Amino acid sequence: MKRFVGMWLVIGAVLVGLVGLFAAFYALAALAAKGAVALGFPGFFGSSIVNAVTLMAVTLMTLAALLTVAERKWSAAMQDRIGANRILVLGKFPLGGVPYLLADALKMLTKESIYPAARSKFLFELAPVLAFSPTFALFAVIPVGPEIRAMGQTVGMWVANPDAGLLWIFALAGLSVYGTTLAGWASNSRVGMLGAVRASAQMISYEVSLGLSLVGVMIAYRTVNLQAMAIAQGADVLGPVPALGILLQPLGFLVFFTSSFAETKRAPFDLPEGESEIVGYFLEYSGMKFGLLFLAEFVEVVILAAVTAAVFLGGWHPVFFEGWMKANLDPLLFGAICAAAFLAKVILLTWLQLIIRWLLPRFRYDQIQGLCWKLLLPGALVNVFVTGAAVLVDPSLQVLAWIGVAEIVAIFGITLAVSKPQAAHGDAHGHAAHAAGH
Amino acid sequence: MPYQIDNRPADTRESLYFPEIFRAIGLVVKTFWRNAFFSRDGNTDILERNRVRNRVTTLQYPEEKAPYPAGYRGLHRLVPRPDGSPRCVACYMCATACPAQCIYIEAAEVEGDPIEKYPAKFVIDELRCVVCGFCVEACPKDAIRMDTGEHPAPTYTREGQIYDEKRLLRGPPVSYEKDPWLVRPSKLTDAAQKANRAAARPFGTLGTDEYSQTPGFSVRELAAEAKARGEVGK
Predict the structure, then answer these.
(1) Which residue ranges make up each domain of chain B?
(2) What is the number of domains present in chain A?
(3) Quick one: average pLDDT of A24-33?
């Protein structure tokens, strides 16, 4: 019981801490905007530079680093284990395994870098950077919080807000395949090359369904700008229910989530680094170069969760009590609560990714390609046509929302309609044999 | 309990693939919820743990140790008398019985007593010990026991595994009459116990060659013949 209460207290403390953190971030951005205006520049120059530090360097990197700890502890909880708890702070407190973060970083940084003699020298150094930086840059266009007025300035919680937001994401997500391919190629190892080939084939295949799954969202919200998309998701569509992406595009959400999972190259799509067959494209890397490739994966998980949250889960909208909060709270506090809600959605989605990671065994290679080309791609295409037709018929999105509700109900219905358990073992065997015989 | 696996072809719903994954996500979420939000029963006897909510079976080893069974042969100890001196009388029975020859004893006479002896040195090399327990069986004074329930502590040097009489002499000054497994009540009735005792063959006959070998075959006779032929060394 003590643990039960404690866990809820921890969750509450994390949420309150996030609100406080983002209030501070908003204040910093507003101050920087004020400074930029004083120097004669547009205000968003200052706030964007501050946001680049606070969002990308602090929030994203901390999330990705904490994900390594969560990977240990959450996986343990899913597998009836305890997980990493041997580092005791002050000889007493395991602190949920968080100190392992420092131990990991220290190990990665101080380990010897071993270079294969037959490597391609320049590309070998370049590959980890190429794997890490495009992934990292993806976060620039994620709208973490709404645009608010604070200290006489209009500040937003994003680094950049280009009109081509989703296209930027497609472009940079496509670039990250170069890092993995070059890593395998430049290390001049057969096994690494095999991993690189697998990675490139898998990522290029899934990019098709990744892109197509978002076309439906673009049609529905009539924009590719992520901030505009987040704002559009706050509008009510079915009575008081807001037009969340998951409501309008359940099929698109499924296809996108699955494809983004494949893009991160994690289990069950971890063929490029299948430990039991080939070690993977980073086989020849050691020390911090391996660390970068490793961290790129975690950053990618966080970012694709962030994109999913921004496009399908209502972006920074806290959804519940939003109108009341907007009317009664200080704009700074409201913005902070919205940003905290967004981060909570991101954490929830990474947790869901971890659950699926431990749920499914690794796919066979033909199964991966089959899932992409035979299931996800047709699904995405059907989704595009249905969405287009529904928006054409009814531009107020009502028809699309009802189609989405029907899809969700159908998925739930099929999921809950479990086939009857077989009465007795011998009986079941007889039936199966009978069915097979005919 | 092992899961029953039903090897039938997937039905239509299952071959849709995603519905089954959704169901399984629910399963893993349930497991996560149980293990993350409810506290673990730290009972070292894992089979007796309450695993209704939290299902973790991990034993946090250095802090939690699984109990050994009652008859576990652990690290030796020299049993003290109530006054603290060793019960051992340096009769060399254990050293003789030891198949690994890991016991070294130096006897000394008790001052002012023409009969009584005591071990001036009693050294056991735990690295040689094969933990057979013969020394405990051989001891006529119940002076050496393996009832500590510990194993020799790990050391960085071999010398650390050589236990002398100062390290061995510890524990309570008990004797067989006080051993818990002798005083625990029998499940048999008094009459049945009496009958068992009456029917029991006395010790010492079971292991001799007359009883255990093929009729007509005797190790002793063979040994005597060999001796007669002069094949046995002096």
Answers:
(1) 13-67, 77-178, 188-234
(2) 1
(3) 89
